[in-house]
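Supplementary notes for students who missed Thursday's class. We covered one full example, reproduced here. Read the sequence, then the structure, then the short commentary at the end.
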Amino acid sequence: MPSNKTDSALASYIEKIRELTKPESVVVFDGTPLAYQELLKELVLKKTLEPLSRENSFLARSTPDDVARLEEVTFICSKVREEVGPNNRWQEPTKMKEELYSRFNGCMQGRVMYVIPYRMGPKGSPLSKLGVEITDSAYVVANMYLMTTTGKEPLLAIEEGAPYVAGVHSVGRSLLSGEEDVPWPSNSYKVIAHFPEEREIWSFGSGYGGNALLGKKCFALRIASKMAEEEGSLAEHMLIIGITNPKGKKRYFAAAFPSGCGKTNLALLQMDLPGWKLECVGDDIAWMWFKEDGRLYAINPEQGFFGIAPGTSMAISPHIMKMIEKDTLFTNVAETKDKDVWWEGMTKEPPEDLIDWHGKRWDKSSKEAAAQPNARFTVSKTRCPILDPNSDNPHGVPIDAILFGGRRSSLTPLVVEARDWRGGVLMGASLSSEKTAAAVGKVGELRHDPFAMLPFCGYNMGDYFAHWLSLAKGSRILPKIYSVNWFRKDEDGRFIWPGYKENAKVLAWIFERLEGEKEAIETPIGLLPKKEAFPVEGSLYEKLFSIDKKAYLREIAELREYFAIFGERFPRELEEELTLMEKRLL
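Structure (token representation):
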């Protein structure tokens, strides 16, 4: 078991992986800026990265079969199958290890094996955790440098016996003597396996995103969510923002959105309301726990942003555009003739002579996108122009409101306040969204994504729902819970709500609700803004907040079918809450 290792035990673990994978050499990454720059030079020589005109910025192009999360080959290998639940794929741990050892045997021949000690979360926080990723991808090391705290400090803590999560990753393409490498090595066979009891992750074949950056979704959500259940805390797929009103009062919100539904845009929103200010603690993951004062506090375990580029522009995301002006790694975006980057939505018209994400001259008349729809940027949070001053506070920030939002073209109103904690947990459990390019599958197809955690919850979601319900105990000061939906469409298929900067009006309404300054109206599904208390004109209010009772009754019937997959582990309290909503609608 790789947790609680001494220095010699860690060395033994590294040696065990070296003997299995047979690399040409082993390098322990020291996490210094100099080591990072040397790594970038190496990646340019290998043609994995191409220098851009932006200062200290580079472009990588992946293979067409390695562009998104691979949920269909992601496994949770708990010892007891029922612990994994119907929301995850399960494989018996011993059998999976046999398969992995077979695949990893000699897979790093001709390559460097990098050892990356890293920390997730602010130094000194009781919720921060340590990890070690072993990989044969220098591209992964560069991204981990931007996304986590790497190097000597976490290594020293591990050497002194602190527990950590181990990750082993390979692109799955060994180099025989004299064989020429390719810019983006990968393997047609791909698998990602998590071992919650052992606190271990193995990933083979993919070099892309969360499949390979094992500190991200694999550790910070799948493994950490199980750890959180055991510890009485939470590890969630949520942004964290601080909002200050014109009176100088500050509150913090957490918000869960499925990948590709505007989470990073909201986390870095330009708050164009007079006197209001928004600051970003994190855009993707929140680790949260209740402290002695009874309030829920959160830290962002990441040190960087791994955001979706398409759709980002100066008009709608000026803070993001400023953040990525330099010191950024881009993956699968298009390239301009002056060696800058471009993607769909960045400007109204594409520039001339673009090189597409395949590395070929782009045909403007073709139906193919110049940038891959899930193209990404990786950048340190130190580049964030609205970084919250408490972003590295080891004590975390107090959460006053939790938002759940999916991409729904109908049914769900712009914003709904849950009546109580139990109703809010049902909101999270009922979350559905139309698929985006962030995961493999048919874009636009509706799927259940409870708490925006369906791909990331490392254990049975029936138990996960119960864990959320169990947090409402004693004299705790629970955050208010809200549902939001920026994506409702009219009968012509056009978005009703402009979204982006206009979302600030929704955040301001929620803030004012917390302050007791805005009244709401009771409806069968929760509390809605009063028409005169929400800043929209004419018939737009009805389009944004109308409730189709028959459609909601159909939704409840469909939810019951979905929740039935969790069997007896589905909490009785949520079934009761569904029944109460049904009665209100009738």
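Commentary. Residues 75 and 89 are 5 Å apart (CA to CA). Residues 1-6 have pLDDT under 50 and may be disordered. If anything here is unclear, bring it to office hours.
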